[in-house]
Amino acid sequence: MSAMGYAYFYLCATFAILGAIATVAAKNPIRGAMGLLLLILSIAGLFLALHAQFLAAIQLIVYAGAIVVLFLFVIMLLGPSASTPSDHRGRITRVAGAGLFAAAGLGAMALLVGSAPKSTIGPTGYPSPTGDFGSVDAFGRILFSQGLVPFELSSALLMVAIVGAVAVARGRHKSDPGAISGAATLEAENVPHAGQAPRTAGGITREAP
Amino acid sequence: MALAFILSPLLVIGAGALLLMLAEAFGPKHNRAAGLALGCTIVFGAGFAFSVGAWLYGVDDVADRALVAPWLVIDHFSLFFDGLLCLGGAIAALLAGGYLREHEMERGEFYSLLLFSTVGAMMVASAGDALIVFLGLETMSLGAYALTAFRRTSPRSAEGALKYFLLGSFAAAMLLYGFALLYGATGHTDLAGIGEAVRAGGPQQTMIIIALVLVLTGLVFKVSAVPFHMWAPDAYEGAPTPATTYMAAVVKAGAFAMLLRVMLTCFTEKGLMSWSAGWPPVLAWIAVLTMTVANLVAGQQESVKRMLAYSSVAHAGYLLVGVVATVHSVPEATSSVLFYLLTYTVSTAGAFGALILCGRKGAEAVTYEDLAGIGRRHPPAALAFSLFLVSLAGIPPTAGFFGKWFVFRAAMDSGFYLLTIVAFVNSVIGAYYYLRVLVFMYMREPAAGAPVATPMKSGYVAAALILSAVLVLILGIVPSQSLDVAIKAASIFGPPGG
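Structure tokens for the assembled complex are given below, as produced in the milestone run.
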């Protein structure tokens, strides 16, 4: 890799780590979301360096474009009152937990780096990417020929995610039309179902989505 | 055509799930949910029938298998699990037909989720590639998360689902990280290729071991072994009972299919399987911890459902003993695990079903006291409950006895005497809390004025219980045929005696 390549890699990597730290350390949720955005942009940059242009574009569109925006919507929707409750665990527990986790991670990394001669770290044994590697064209060809089976099977994953989201979010029973907010839902557990409507077909109401 | 035939269990369940969704949306409004339960059971039954058909037809010499390789590996192991998962799913669907109506939660999504989640479990069982393992695992788990949260008005359900979701996603991420490292170390994502590269050795040993740690963590979390079991009691207790049945039977079977497939395909290198430096001692300690902790905690529960949840964790421990025994005799030990899964599925599904039958809306059977005297008030429910608990405790002539017998014998044959003794002592401890339910049902009377559970009446639940009870008795009295099936399924990991 050229010196320019190293500089680019370290630039992206530094921003990625800074973004990750900001995501977990920020007290303000908006700043946390912005840290996540920085992380996602830096990783897209790393993908570009790996000849994975399509992946980089998808990373920007899906994560930066959709997911971070969704996070921001939710944060705005909940408003400033929805701050995280203060952590009631003791300082020692928290520091010890973080330390243990960091030690295990760094230990594994040190083991990995120390175990092998430098030249074998990284994908040295693999063929270098050819001309159109990572392009939309090459990606599409592989996805719809070699990768057809996992591509088709992932439709089951998307389907179960949609149905699951609908099952969790929808389907108020006719018997408790008032229970909409979270607090009302919590109360509904203790209150006997007032005025039980005669059982309709499946107890399913057709409400506007 | 042959391709459609060998994939038929997966296709039938997937197509059935889509049809059921259409029926839910456009079907006649009258009595729709009851029809959905029946439809769901029929789809599971069809899946089971197609698994048996493909099994009898034989899949080894079907040339079209190559078309889906290496993504999906259709062999007797995967067909065994297809049948087992469909059986567990069918019992859960039947229980849901009774339970959801009684508790007024009838919504069609429940059945679609059951079916789609089973598609994921089948993908896991027949996965030949790390990508499919992950896709299947997520499909299975997302369905299970949603099923746990299905009781929308209950904070318990939400709490259990949230814990399950967060911890489950974390474990899946660990598994994925492990697979990524394996890809980095070996250059393969297909399990067979990874296995070959691992056996060939090379300078990437350390990376492989770190990947092994991560993969094993993810897998062991999914089978809910101690110390990764924290989510299980809350999720099992919070979920509606048919969903609990489904998680205890189908999701657990899928997780064990994944554990066996990944470990016995990828990590069979001698150094990694050795007793001094490999994964078996780690798994043996996890098994010991799982059995001991789960049995001791289960004995202290006041809620019967929570006790059954801990019992399900304990059974994961017995199953892990069988997985550890694969070190010395792969086919024998694997077949014992498969047979145990079969007996465990019918016993635990039956036990949860009997618990459903003992309660009615507003008068549910929760604690031991609720069950006091139910042997006199409702003999059929109590009799069914007793049969399944006796089977879970491993007392002959029920299925659980032979399940434990074969696993313990496999462990003894492999020379794990101490592990077998621990497992045996644990099954004696386990008998205490199973038989305690029997004591309450038959020998106690409820205190005057105390709330008691009122048994419900439901043809669906009765059908599920009769199905499980017949299987428990058949497996407990004439286990040889089913054992032969398990041995044939396990033979893909090498010839018997090898």
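The mean pLDDT of chain B is 90. Chain B touches chain A through 57 residues (CB under 8 Å). Further analysis is deferred to the final report.
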